[in-house]
Amino acid sequence: MQITTEILKQLQQIELKMLEAFLQICEKENLRYYLLGGTLLGAVRHKGFIPWDDDIDIGMPRADYEKFLASAGKYLPSYYFLQTLHTEPDFPFSFAKMRDSRTVYKEEALAKLNIHHGVWIDIFPLDLYPKNDFWVDIYHRFLQKRVSCRFIEKNSLKTKFFKLLSYFVCPSWKEAVKRRDRLMRTAASQSPLTANWCGAWGKKEIMPTQWYGEGSNLVFENLQVKGPKEYDRWLTQIYGNYMQLPPPEKRIVAHNPSEIKL
Questions:
Q1: Which residue of 100, 161, 174, 184 has the fewest CB atoms within a 10 Å radius of its CB?
Q2: pLDDT by residue (tens digit) across 137-158?
Q3: Among 147, 143, 128, 144, CA closest to 186
């Protein structure tokens, strides 16, 4: 489905309202958070949204993330729905989304799932990551692929073989989501590294914990926000020369919606 400039601007304004509600809860409950991914890049490079970005990414240290999930219901208006694997059994991710139930922004890959499909912002738990643990990495990648294969309709021979093999280890993709969540929580009790295990950039999102720290003050549109303390190192590890704009052909919306109602 084609996303026009007008639709994208409307979408961003809805997301900005959700971010504002999120920030108010964090202030009231004294919770730590950091902008991540393209949202962090947008704050640093554009002082707001990357012009072609269609979502907001936030990370929270695990303890703060859990407190947020427990307390958000006291503050959120009824039309905001906090979506997790615990609030919706068919939700295929080990992180949270805040959804605006008055809207529809249905991703093509998830369109057939019986879940809320409103406009969202992503809220990721940040967990310790074990240093040089080969088997944790292999197991996590397996669980991640086990879930993602569920949503691939046009299967290659390689994908079909993986699906068949994976059924013997983890018959249910929903169980794979739960196992991934447990792994994220328990893989490391002590480590100098913190990861957004569910991030789009894979191993690049394994960072020294000290890079996050107490955060840096940034501006996103009209809001005062927090990014990692060492946001320059964070962005460089993910994007390289992040202040350089990508070529025009790569300035595209990341998600592929099948239905939009704003």
A1: 161
A2: 999 989 988 888 776 656 677 7
A3: 128
